[in-house]
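Tutorial handout. Part one gives the primary structure; part two gives the three-dimensional structure as tokens.
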Amino acid sequence: MQGLTLAILFLVLPASAVCGLAGESQSDPERFIRSLSPFDESVAVQALYELSQRGIGPMSTALVEALEGGTPAVKRASQRFVEEWRATERARIR
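Part two.
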């Protein structure tokens, strides 16, 4: 069920817009987190996914530190994304 929730969330914002958020700020996690501030959790989850596809995992030190300055919605999104990411990693190991 949780995977389905994430799949539904990916339909909220056009992929090109989300890729732009992740791509523009890829080398600057603080800028990335700031760029998410006007959006809700669903957009933040999508952007975090895109960032992870570009090689910056949800547990990277720079991203975790940057999240300290994020909005409550971005922090919740990150928390949800990390939970799902960990569940996926555990499933892959089995």
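Part three, for discussion. The radius of gyration is 12 Å. Residues 72-93 form the longest helix (22 residues).
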